[in-house]
Design goal:
single chain, alpha+beta, Beta-galactosidase, Chain A, domain 5, Glycosyltransferase, 8-stranded antiparallel sheet, 5-stranded antiparallel sheet, hydrolase activity, hydrolyzing O-glycosyl compounds, GH15-like
Length: 623
């Protein structure tokens, strides 16, 4: 199976430079193939900062030798011939694995290639559009970029300005300059008369019309550039647009060089086959794209959760950045993530926040946040050796360790909670449990806090932390391990894929438990029909939950690497690669209907690529 990134309409391929974020969508709500800029965001990558109307931006093309238009939505009704013709998505990719997204699609004999990028250090987005014929014959064509604006408050020649809020403005145009017509799209592209009606409170479709240009046989036509620029004021948006327009012909190569230079700073994993080299590059690119300008890693491509900061996922991104060699980004991401922390009434921290309000955004009750915080701080500090980081973070370290040590019950385990899976608990008629995940990540966090405590000469606390970690592991051994198999919790012998991480990413479990646990996981968590690993056993928390997830599949593969079973490890890794989009994005999971739920945050899917290849290099290709 190899699906396109958009089969779930909420699934989007991202393009970002930290200042702005665009979603590119390949399937609409009815799963019809399209090539559309679904949404464009300024500064806060949250739905409240969306700049386009719901229909986004796309392109229509008329090959003058053909009866059929390239027309994904059926706007053109000038003659027969549209029935039965749909757009076919031929290929999608990030150019060379970097920050330019390319789509090739066709309808009938008309082939359209778009490239979309966010030039570095701007608040702008550029899309180039070019066309050719599928049969390679010479022809003539007209290209019509379409954009649905939330309103039009002003025209300046062929620049159209939309105001979304007091501090959200959008300016759009095309290059070379061509006429913009607002109103009925079908009439605009066929030359029919239109009564222009623009209202600053009403959504407005805008079509840029252009003269006929030649399609030179097998080659693409010269590109038409569609420009979007955002700003906190009209003046800033216009300034960004003019700056982008003045550099538009150099913009693509400038953007590509930016990402190529960044890749030279990435840890060298050695020579990789072309397939894996592409995944390595695109995954490192997407990790960077998940960072806002202030360094906050957020969900970037899955609509229901856009704008959420999940402490677990954001720390995973920060740690992955550090492991991949991007220490400056990792430090910035760590500080930004921990700036969101708000204490719960019991002294722990909430685990999810909205990026705009910075208020908690919870689904359930989880007690693993403190252990994850300790891991994240240690991982970044251990690779940067920045003593000031420990000084800055010591109050959070102390708060986290104190909470862990004080919140164990008579079992020796951390108090019952939802574990790693936030959609679990009394709100779904399920009781919280003494989750293995929570106690184990707390133990790992304590073990790393001991190292950090020694670094700041808190030796007594270091001993206390090590003793606490050992006691938690002993409690897990006593209550949550059966015949060598590590189970989900004290209350059940069901399996949870997250425990495999404690043999690889958080190596704190006994090696004696490794083989029995991964054998049981392969037998009981592998999907019997399509392969891949479920994240848990009989813990159905949402529709389609018992389907393979990308994260757990990588995790089990990594556990097999630790067990020196390279063939089994790559069987699971390749399952994920084989179920990727053509452009290299990996889904969080597959829904029960077979559609993928797409990229939610690179921590969960694309980080698996980075971390598994780094582990493989460490174990089997050491320097």
């Amino acid at each position: 199976m190899n699906y396109f990134i958009g089969k779930n309409q909420n699934n989007n391929a991202p393009i970002s430079n930290g200042n702005v974020l665009a979603w590119i969508q390949q399937y609409d709500v009815g799963c019809h193939p399209v090539d559309r800029i679904n949404q464009f965001f300024l500064k806060y990558f949250d739905m409240s900062s969306s700049l386009l109307d719901d229909n986004g931006s796309y392109v229509l093309v008329k090959d003058h030798n053909e009866k059929v238009w390239y027309d994904p939505y059926g706007f053109v009704q000038e003659k027969l011939g549209q029935i039965g013709e749909i757009v076919s998505i031929n290929d999608t990719k990030y150019v060379d694995g970097f920050g330019i997204y390319e789509v090739v699609s066709h309808k009938g004999n008309t082939v359209v290639k778009t490239k979309t990028w966010a030039p570095p250090n701007t608040h702008s987005l550029v899309r180039s559009i070019s066309a050719k014929t599928l049969r390679g014959n010479q022809s003539k064509a007209s290209i019509y970029p379409v954009i649905h604006l939330k309103n039009i408050v002003q025209r300046l020649d062929n620049i159209f300005i939309s105001r979304i809020s007091e501090n959200q403005w959008l300016a759009v145009t095309v290059f070379p300059v061509i006429d913009g017509i607002s109103g009925d799209i079908g009439k605009a592209v066929t030359g029919e008369r239109i009564t222009v009606f623009e209202h600053s409170l009403l959504p407005t479709p805008l079509v840029f019309t252009m003269p006929t240009q030649p399609l030179p046989g097998p080659d693409y036509s010269p590109p038409v550039y569609q420009l979007f620029a955002a700003g906190d004021s009209k003046e800033q948006a216009l300034h960004e647009l003019e700056r982008t327009r003045s550099e538009v012909k150099q913009s693509e190569q400038k953007t590509l060089r930016y990402w190529q230079l960044r890749h030279t700073q990435t840890v060298d994993v050695g020579p990789l086959p072309e397939k894996y080299d592409y995944f390595w590059k695109v995954s490192n690119t997407l990790i960077k794209m998940s960072l806002q300008s202030d360094g906050t890693p957020i969900i970037i491509g899955f609509k229901p959760y856009i704008g959420n900061v999940w402490i677990r996922d954001s720390l995973w991104v920060a740690a992955t950045l550090a492991l991949a060699g991007h220490l400056e980004d990792a430090v910035k991401a760590l500080y930004a993530t921990l700036s969101y922390l708000i204490e719960r009434s019991d002294g722990n921290y909430y685990f999810a926040y909205n990026v705009v309000t910075k208020l908690p955004n919870e689904h359930a009750f989880e007690n693993d946040t403190t252990g994850l915080i300790l891991y994240g701080i240690w991982q970044v500090w251990s690779l940067t050796n920045d003593s000031s980081l420990l000084q800055d973070m010591w109050p959070i370290i102390k708060q986290s360790t104190d909470w862990i040590l004080k919140n164990r019950d008579s079992t020796g385990l951390i108090l019952p909670d939802a574990g790693i899976w936030e959609t679990f608990g009394p709100h779904l008629d399920e009781h919280f449990e003494h989750m293995t995940w929570t106690s184990a990540i707390s133990a790992f966090g304590l073990s790393k806090a001991a190292i950090m405590a020694e670094a700041v000469s808190e030796n007594e606390k270091a001993n206390q932390y090590r003793q606490g970690a050992a006691e938690l592991i002993q409690a897990i051994s006593q209550h949550n391990v059966h015949n060598g198999i590590v189970t989900r919790s004290l209350e059940t012998k069901l399996l949870d894929a997250s425990v495999s991480l404690f043999f690889s990413e958080y190596p704190i479990f006994s090696k004696e438990w490794l083989q029995p646990t991964i054998k049981a996981m392969r037998q009981r968590l592998e999907d019997p029909f399509i392969g891949g690993i479920w994240r848990h056993e009989s813990l159905v928390t949402e529709e389609g939950d018992l389907k393979p997830w990308t994260g757990p599949t990588f995790w089990l593969g990594q556990a097999f690497l630790i067990d020196n079973d390279v063939n089994e490890a790559w069987r699971y890794f390749n399952h994920n690669y084989d179920n990727s989009a053509f452009c290299g994005l990996l889904p969080e999971l597959l829904y029960s209907s077979g559609r993928p739920r797409g990229i939610g945050l690179p921590s969960y899917s694309q980080s698996g690529v980075i971390r598994s290849l780094l582990l493989y290099k460490h174990l089997y290709m050491p320097d």
